[in-house]
Design a protein that fits this description.
It is a single chain. The longest helix is centred in the N-terminal third of the chain and has 17 residues, at 2-18. Strands 8-9-10-11-12-13-14-17 form an eight-stranded antiparallel β-barrel. An eight-stranded antiparallel barrel has the order 18-19-20-21-22-23-24-30. The chain has an eight-stranded antiparallel β-barrel with strand order 31-32-33-34-35-36-37-38. The protein is elongated, with a radius of gyration of 36 Å. Strand 8 and strand 9 form a beta hairpin. The chain starts with a helix and ends with a helix. With 603 residues, the chain is mainly β. The chain is built from five helices and 38 strands.
Length: 603
């Protein structure tokens, strides 16, 4: 009885002595240790289930008290990285056997590894993309075909894509996502580096299956890598050329120097038309992020690397980009055209896994395509000064005089003269990129225009409509939409111009006898006064034949065809009656047809 009380008193004294021993504060947290089902919770006093800090011996050595076994254990522990601790633990001894408190640990004891998996990842030390051959244990090298290691959108992740070799049983086709958790230098050998990482594969579920260590060494031709056989990090890991799995990484054949043009990389950021994406260009890289205009927050969506220049001029360039989303990478043929200062059009081809196929006709080919919908009933209305206008009569019959409407029944053959063609991309999509903080620019001085037809017209005159437009006059930076209806006071809606350009395009909306090109014009603008329902910017697209202009408005892009707005009825025509001059004022006696443009833009 007295012996038991004495023993209990002795352990109480030990615990009191232990209160002066502390682990570094930065070790506090949850740690994974191979062989333990639950994470170890480390505090400044306790190393999880391994024991309580009893005494610090110096030189990375501690004496732990294990309450369950009522013994003292020597521990040598090293912090390799913020997320990695390695230790050796001696035999747990009765306190009376620990002579003079001296801590002795055999050098033959194995190293064990503590990994912090939830405190942030680190950049991977392996360059990518690279190709590699691999070998399991003492087996044969699998290098035909070569496997590949590619980058992910995060610099802390890589994708390992293993290929199977027909003559090697141990080889297999699989993909593993490698997430780097900690990197440190090998103390024993110069030039070698340790990496602790997780390997994610569809059949791996537990940390015991996911955690692995790697030993790396750079060579003149690439990198030699070996992998541990389990989560203990040192089992089967002998050298960069000997291990459970060894990889021989080689640098991929490099293409010619490929950079984005100076008008993309001049320190600017570019937003898409709708402010939902933001693009940042460096010399050879494009980073595209999702963007919230309300919160100003960004989240990285993809990273594209320039791998080949296909063609280049002073204001355009066609490139092959390698685009990475998460850990999946594809090639895209991408065309950039500088339309005005700070305004760039981007056309992307279809994604492909084969670089040489990126700019093939199947993946990147603008062509004339008949977009007449056989199920759409078309109506035609003659317009003074122009050949014809096409409007979707099935939707707008109620807005037009019945005498002016000619209908083709669904399934019937439309007169070839009236076929609508427009330039579309048979592969890929267009985007308009607009530089951040783009300043107001002079408007094209197109003069005074009167509205001659509109397909969202109102039957009565009201302040939301307009019947006259002034382009760049009298103010050179504004467009003025004037509602000047007879018997009512005039009102105006103003837009600031942000940039404009014109293109000569083969006529694609009408078949012309003269075979001449048609001028397409684009005006990017923003409202001078904006409310919560109006767009931050709009793009006016027009074609002209003589003094007659045909218009549509893009609310999310600069539209390059009229077919979409044709079906929605978002078209109007104007006729230029005066050039810009001091006497350019809206006339009260010109034909009036109202278009609810502010409603159209806000809708």
């Amino acid at each position: 009885m007295l012996a038991r009380q004495g023993s209990a008193l002795f352990h109480i004294i030990l615990l009191q002595i232990s209160t002066g021993c502390r682990f570094p504060e930065e070790w506090s947290g949850s740690w994974f240790l191979s062989g333990h089902r639950d994470r170890l919770e480390i505090t400044q006093q306790k190393l999880g289930s391994l024991g309580v800090c009893h005494r610090y011996q110096g030189e990375h050595k501690y004496i732990l008290y294990k309450h369950r076994d009522r013994c003292l254990q020597c521990l040598a522990i090293w912090q390799r990285h913020a997320n990695v601790l390695e230790f050796k633990a001696g035999e747990c001894l009765d306190p009376s056997m620990l002579r003079g408190g001296y801590c002795h640990i055999s050098p033959d004891l194995p190293l064990r590894t503590l990994a912090r998996l939830d405190e942030g990842d680190v950049p991977c030390p392996l360059p990518a993309p690279m190709i590699f051959s691999y070998r399991k244990g003492d087996g044969k090298d699998c290098g035909s075909p070569m496997s590949e290691i590619s980058r992910c959108i995060k610099d802390s992740q890589l994708m390992l894509k293993f290929q199977a070799c027909p003559d090697i049983i141990q080889s297999e086709i699989k993909e593993e996502k490698l997430t780097c958790k900690g990197v440190w230098r090998d103390d024993s050998t110069v030039g070698q580096t340790f990496l602790l990482a997780t390997l994610d594969y569809r059949y791996r579920r537990t940390d015991e299956e996911r955690v692995r260590c790697f030993l790396l060494k750079n060579t003149t031709s690439g990198v030699r890598v070996s992998q541990s056989s389990d989560a203990s990090c040192h089992a089967g890991l002998h050298s960069p050329t000997e291990g459970y799995l060894t990889l021989k990484l080689l640098h991929s054949s490099r293409s010619e120097q490929c950079n984005f043009p100076t008008w993309l990389i001049g320190g600017r950021r570019f937003f898409t038309f709708d402010f939902r994406r933001v693009a940042e260009f460096s010399r050879g890289e494009l980073r595209l992020s999702n963007y919230s205009y309300a919160t100003r927050r960004e989240s990285l969506l993809s990273v594209s690397t320039c791998v080949q220049t296909v063609s280049r001029s002073s204001n355009s360039v066609r490139l092959i980009l390698r685009t990475v989303v998460d850990c999946e990478s594809v090639y895209k043929c991408t065309l950039f055209i500088s339309r005005a200062d700070g305004i760039v059009e981007m056309k992307e081809g279809l994604p492909t896994l084969v670089r040489l196929a990126a700019c093939s006709e199947a993946n990147f080919k603008p062509e004339l395509k008949n977009t007449t919908n056989p199920l759409l009933s078309l109506a035609y209305q003659d317009v003074p000064g122009s050949r014809l206008d096409l409007i979707p009569g099935s939707k707008l019959d109620s807005l037009l005089p019945r005498s002016n409407v000619k209908t083709s029944l669904p399934g019937s053959q439309v007169d070839p003269f009236l076929d609508e063609f427009h330039a579309v991309s048979s592969a890929g999509k267009h985007s308009t990129l607009i530089a951040e903080n783009l300043q107001i620019q002079p408007c094209p001085r197109l003069g005074l225009h009167n509205l001659t037809s509109g397909y969202l017209s109102s039957s009565t005159c009201n302040q939301l409509g307009f019947n006259t437009i002034l382009f760049g006059c009298p103010s050179g930076e504004q467009m003025e939409l004037v509602n000047n209806c007879s018997g009512e006071s005039s009102t105006s809606t103003f837009y600031y111009c942000l940039g404009s350009w014109e293109e000569n395009i083969r006529n694609q909306n009408f078949r012309r006898d003269d075979g001449e090109n048609e001028t397409y014009g684009f005006i990017l603008a923003k409202p001078r006064i904006r409310n919560s329902n109006s767009n931050r910017r709009v793009c006016f697209t027009y074609t002209r034949q003589g003094s007659v202009y045909r218009w549509t408005i893009g609310k999310s892009e600069c539209l390059r065809s009229f077919s979409a707005t044709l079906q929605a009825g978002q078209l109007f025509n104007t006729s230029r009656v005066e050039q810009c001059s001091a006497s350019s004022f809206p006339s009260l006696h010109l034909p009036v047809v109202l278009l609810l443009l502010p409603i159209l833009i806000a809708s």
